[in-house]
Amino acid sequence: MSEIKEIRKRINKPPKHNRLYILAISALLLISVVMGTLIYAKSNADAKLFGIPLADISNRFDNFFGGLFKSKVNGSSDDKTVSASPKYTYLGNNYYKSEDQSVPAIVDGTINNISEDQNGYYVLISYTNGITAQYFELTDVIVKVNDNIRTNDSIGVYDTKFKALFMKNNEVIRYEEIFN
């Protein structure tokens, strides 16, 4: 009879997971929450977590891990320029960043004004598509007043982010509206 009681105890006893299994499941759960938060941060630049803008957290994550997954390919003399629209990433409150801390020209245009204040350099550009762009908080400027620039030419560089305002027909427009 005691053997039957022992067998029933084993059958009714809940399964016990080893510590490695529990640690792995916990790590996967944590990674899922972090990745979900970062994905949400990319789609909603004004969202905050504990008072910290999620865009800042996402940018720090990109800066820390960004170079880990990128490969560098050596160029050759056969390199060709490919025309593509420059990509700015919106960070909120008219702040942007690009892939390499340079500010590329959106389309062909002319440099109208350059000035400097305590926040950095300011550049005013008239693009050929009727857009006027104002770039603020640049740490260095590569262009000069009256320079003609082409799409993707570097205007200047920035440290962590730059501010930009885009206007068409004397109205401020969003970055996405430039390409419509």
3D structure, described in words:
There is one protein chain. This protein is of the alpha+beta class and 180 residues long. Helices cover 27% and strands 32% of the residues. The strands form three sheets. Strands 3, 4, 6, 7, 8, 10, 12 and 13 form an eight-stranded antiparallel sheet that branches. Strands 5-11-9 form a three-stranded antiparallel sheet, with no helix packed on it. Strands 1-2 form a two-stranded antiparallel sheet. The longest helix is centred in the N-terminal third of the chain and has 25 residues. The protein starts with a helix and ends in a 7-residue tail after the last strand. The model has no long low-confidence stretch (mean pLDDT 81).
Terminal-residue CA separation = 82 Å
Q: Compute the number of helices.
A: 3
The radius of gyration is 26 Å
**Low-confidence parts:** none
Describe how the helices and strands are arranged.
Layout lengths: L1 H11 L6 H25 L4 E2 L2 E2 H12 L23 E4 L2 E3 L4 E3 L4 E9 L2 E8 L3 E8 L1 E2 L6 E2 L4 E4 L4 E7 L2 E3 L7
Antiparallel strand pairs: 1-2, 3-4, 4-12, 5-11, 6-7, 6-10, 7-8, 8-12, 9-11, 12-13
